[in-house]
């Protein structure tokens, strides 16, 4: 479907994995402030870093989501449009450490639910090791950045997680006569906290937890000095364990029995996912991946391919049913064939009008054409009926008599046909000038019909009588 302008943007920058909550909060507030102070069109800004308190939103701290709502367009700066506003925001929000992406709230949620990709387009890279996946994802990212149709592209930095490892020394633990659980419980309670009481405030309840102060868990040295109780007194944690930091994958994703890493892509305004995929495939054609590694496109292109596969069955079935209905209405195979095989001319006007508006092919456009075929079929059938009645009323059939009868039958259809054309145009043309939510889809459905009913008038009033005359003359 064409892009649906929800009149609300969602700004979704990402940071490297491993960012702290304080830094995530600072970046969220910074971007919120920039949006509020630099764009008078913005009504409200609401930013969120990390996940909500729900299992259905497993977002890391590195993922920031900011919902931007706008004032009525009558209060905007002169000449400002949604496209210009998005471009200005993108150029203003070039903050070190953030990689920007933009979408709409509803569309973004649907994309994430269906494919896991939160941008309009993406690539899923499959492989066996996290290290090689990160390496080749970076190569794909760099190649796509060179394409002019790319607004933003970034790969998951899945290998940039930092962990504190505590490797216990079994010999030392046995030497002091203690068990591992004592050390693990001390670490767990000291770092994560232990609930010791509950505060009741009316119907509300708040757990009260205690843990070590910040300075006692700030670095390896402080952590190593944490005291562990033993039968021989207290001993530092460093006695029983080796403490060190290690870089490792911060998030693990798997699909189809393989590890996977996502590359998120936001095409520029006016670049369709299909066109981007075509150009992107050329840029990645000579990228050699190790055995067992491969990538596939996801997001809008995935939906379009699925929809096109369905249309390969739906369109022929629709045309077949249309032909059967034409035959049942006319009770003549000859007349049914005349109507059916002249119908493509009705689509000429729709195609030309789409080209004038620079509308891309989409499912909504297909729906418009199918509706157009229905209207053109109806008027063509009525024209054939008028012509049959005019020719049937002749007492003597000569070339001139038949020609005159067909002319009179066609003339009788001028006024009804023009009334049909103007009624359809009067109902559909206003759609082309609205800009509310959903107008993009409605315009793609209306455009083929607006252009098509004009060429359909030519089909009904000129082509159908001419073809019918040729068929009658042969008889």
UniProtKB/TrEMBL annotation:
A molecular function GO annotation: xenobiotic transmembrane transporter activity
Cross-referenced Pfam families: ACR_tran
Protein name in the entry: Cobalt-zinc-cadmium resistance protein CzcA Cation efflux system protein CusA
Source organism of this protein record: hydrothermal vent metagenome
GO annotations of cellular component type: plasma membrane
Signal listed as a keyword: no
InterPro entries: AcrB_DN_DC_subdom, Acrflvin-R
Sorted UniProt keywords: Membrane, Transmembrane, Transmembrane helix
PANTHER family for the chain: CATION EFFLUX SYSTEM PROTEIN CUSA, PTHR32063
